[in-house]
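To illustrate the input format used throughout this study, we show a single complete record. The first block contains the structure-token representation of the backbone; no residue identities are included at this stage. The design step must infer an amino acid for every position from geometry alone.
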């Protein structure tokens, strides 16, 4: 079922935000200091493309993750959260789209504070 969900999600709500994640990952990867942030952006782009069958865990946020999250909110986070919220609202217009809209809202929350989060595959 997660394969079907991921295929539908890719076309309805995952592609454009994933491109945004990838774009911000490229921007952050320009400098050596921003490279860890860019790598996390690429991981989140993969999650944005195919979120079903995966779970996000927050094992705790250290001081470094907190500071990067604060910086991230202003350099990428707001744009990604808005894109996911708009997608979620559009998907929730129909009954069939509600599960996908809820997934989009989860991704909007993750878009604001992605650092310190870990993606786990659920079997």
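Output of the design step:
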């Amino acid at each position: 079922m997660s394969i079907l969900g991921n295929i539908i999600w890719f076309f309805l709500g995952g592609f454009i935000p994933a491109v945004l994640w990838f774009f911000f990952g490229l921007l952050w990867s320009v400098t050596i200091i921003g490279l860890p942030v860019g790598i996390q952006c690429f991981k989140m782009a993969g999650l944005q493309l195919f979120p079903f069958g995966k779970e996000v865990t927050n094992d705790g946020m250290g001081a470094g993750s907190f500071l990067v999250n604060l910086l991230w909110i202003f350099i990428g986070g707001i744009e990604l959260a808005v894109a996911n919220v708009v997608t979620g609202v559009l998907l929730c217009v129909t009954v069939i789209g509600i599960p996908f809209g809820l997934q989009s809202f989860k991704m909007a929350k993750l878009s604001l504070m992605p650092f310190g989060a870990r993606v786990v595959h659920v079997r």
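Structural context for interpreting the output: Residues 1-121 form one domain. The longest strand covers residues 54-58.
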